[in-house]
Design goal:
This protein is α/β, with parallel strands linked by helices and 381 residues long. It contains 13 helices and 13 strands. It has an 8-stranded parallel barrel, surrounded by 5 helices. The protein has a two-stranded antiparallel ribbon with strand order 1-2. Strands 7-8 form a two-stranded parallel sheet.
Length: 381
């Protein structure tokens, strides 16, 4: 009698506090720019619902206040109405066995922009004629993010405190909306990353200067979110662990920052890179498969924190190899999931976890299994 094959690590559950992910596939936050007034709609329901074979499904970056949106099409959660619009999505994901997660974000100086397919440039008077007027952006310092952008307003201490509370209020609403995981967005050149990086933070007060000052605001956000978020639920933080050639944000500084996050109860670091001086979708050179996984591996090695790897992870065996080698604790699938919304289910088939489509929704799985059982083998065709 042969031994039963060991379950691939990709499909081994992962418990984070009291929340158990059924597998280690996460759907990365992916902006859709399709909301109206920040409210989730049918597009978001069908978009996120298709990914339910993954263990953890994140919403796109969801703004903690209206001026924190990148574009007019961004999701938001700055009111109870926004939370209620998301409740339908969390309920469906849970019914399908997935854990719903939300990424809370503030674009800072990279807000007030056109959608990427409209060029991504800052909004101007011509957009106002189409009922999408520009608004004043905010940042640690009055430095525009790129040529052609207007200067942001530099936040003072009282305004910083108000934004911290906006994050806390958003986390409370996320819990009320049924989310089980919350992620703080501190990457890609958005507000928290703007404070962390000396490229965008030129302050000489308690909120800038050396690393201790630059990380003060992000740490306050992490501390406040962790305090209001239920103790039994995990908090992730997405971090640009490299600024792609800029020497002001080093892995040594990253490790110090992550250590402080651990003290404040952050459970998982979602390891990304870049974005401090360009539009969020700008490409600097060609990417290679798994191009950011090394960052997750290094942070995990230095600090012992759980990490999530992301960045051109496209194949089931590639993802399994990353986990087996201990490079991170779970993997995030992004644009590949747009190409194949059933990526996690196909991965389960490829790795031998689900030979008879039992993980699929029954109205799909029964018919697909039936097809497999009734189609003649190649030798008979």
């Amino acid at each position: 009698m042969s031994e039963r094959p060991e379950t691939p690590l990709l499909f081994t559950p992962l418990k984070l506090r009291e929340v158990e992910l059924p597998n280690r596939v996460a759907i990365s936050p992916m902006c859709q720019y399709s909301a109206n007034g920040g409210l989730a709609n049918d597009w978001h329901f069908q978009h996120l619902g298709r990914f339910a074979g993954a263990g953890l499904v994140f919403t796109e970056a969801t703004a903690v206040e209206a001026r924190g949106r990148i574009t007019f099409g961004d999701l938001g959660i700055w009111s109870d109405d926004h939370a209620e619009a998301l409740r339908r999505i969390t309920r469906y994901l849970k019914d399908r066995g997935a854990v719903p997660g939300i990424q809370l974000a503030h674009a800072g100086r990279k807000a007030s922009a056109r959608r990427p397919w409209d060029g991504g440039a800052p909004l101007d008077d011509s957009d106002a004629e189409a009922s999408e007027p520009p608004w004043q952006t905010v940042a640690p310092s009055a430095l525009p993010p790129f040529d052609g952008a207007g200067p942001p307003h530099a936040l003072d201490a009282e305004e910083i405190a108000a934004v911290v509370e906006a994050w806390a209020s958003a986390a409370l609403r996320a819990h009320q909306a049924g989310f089980e995981v919350v992620e703080i967005h501190a990457a890609h050149g958005y507000l928290l990353h703007q404070f962390l990086s000396a490229v965008s933070n030129r302050r000489d007060d308690a909120w800038g200067g050396a690393l201790e000052g630059r990380m003060r605001f992000p740490l306050l956000v992490a501390e406040r979110v962790r305090r209001v978020w239920p103790r039994e639920k995990p908090v992730f933080l997405r971090l640009s662990a490299s600024d792609e050639g800029d020497p002001s944000w080093t892995m040594d500084e990253v490790a110090v920052f992550v250590g402080e996050l651990q003290k404040r109860g952050i459970d998982v670091i979602d390891c990304s890179s870049g974005g401090i001086g360009a539009q969020g979708f700008a490409i600097r050179g060609r990417r290679v498969p798994g191009f950011q996984v090394g960052l997750a591996e290094e942070i995990r090695r230095r600090t012992g924190v759980r990490t999530m790897g992301v960045g051109l992870i496209t194949g089931a065996r590639q993802a399994e190899d990353i986990l087996q080698r201990g490079r991170c604790d779970l993997v995030a699938i992004g644009r590949e999931a747009l190409h194949d919304p059933y990526w996690a289910l196909h991965a389960a088939r490829e790795l031998g976890v689900d030979p008879d489509f039992r993980l699929w929704p029954r109205p799909y799985g029964w018919w697909l299994d039936y097809r497999d059982r009734t189609v003649a083998p190649d030798r008979e065709r």
